[in-house]
Every structure is written in structure tokens, then in C-alpha cells.
Amino acid sequence: MTTPRRRGSIVTRASAAGAVAIGAAALIVAVILIIAERSGLRAQDVRAREQAYRLNNIGVARLEQYDYRTAAETFRQALASPSAPPFAHLNLASAL
Question: Taking a C-beta distance cutoff of 8 angstroms, is the pair 68, 95 a contact?
């Protein structure tokens, strides 16, 4: 009488689960790349947006230090970017 080989079936199920997880991760990455390509996001656009957000954050820091003139200048620099965050307008109004 032979005993059933349970370990083999567990390993097989674990291997199959791992393969499914890898396939799902690859699918998610592919979808993200397709969305990014279709939305027209380029590295240059992303850098411009990051710079605008960075300038806005610097302006907020200047506001917290009660340096209103420098804060207003920094918010204006952030707003000069076409991808400026919309709340930079409110921050500029707070500095003025």
C-alpha cells in the first residue's frame, strides 16, 4: 500500500500560485505603461510638474517663516509652469 504524495501537490499549487502572481504583476505593469503612453506623459513633462510642486512647497515653507515677499515670488515661479498645481493660486493669494 502506498501513501499519497501530498508534498508534491502542495509544491505544484504553490508554483502555480507564484506563476499567477508574476503574470498579474506583469499585466499591471503593462497597463500602467499603456496608460502613461496614451496620456502623453513624457519625462520632461513630469520633471516640469515636479518642479512646480517643489516651488509651491518652498513657497509654503516661506509662508510659515512669515517671509511673504519671497513666498509670493516662489508661488509666481510655480505658476509660470504650464503644469502648475491649481492650489498655488490660493497660496499666492495668502502670501499677498
Answer: yes
- Residue-level length of the chain: 96
Minimal CA–CA distance to 83: which of 43, 53, 40, 38? 53
75 in the same domain as 58? yes
pLDDT tens-digit series, residues 10-29: 545 556 666 666 767 777 77
State whether 87 and 75 are in the same domain: yes
- Separation of alpha carbons 29 and 37, rounded Å: 12
- Which pTM does this prediction carry? 0.55
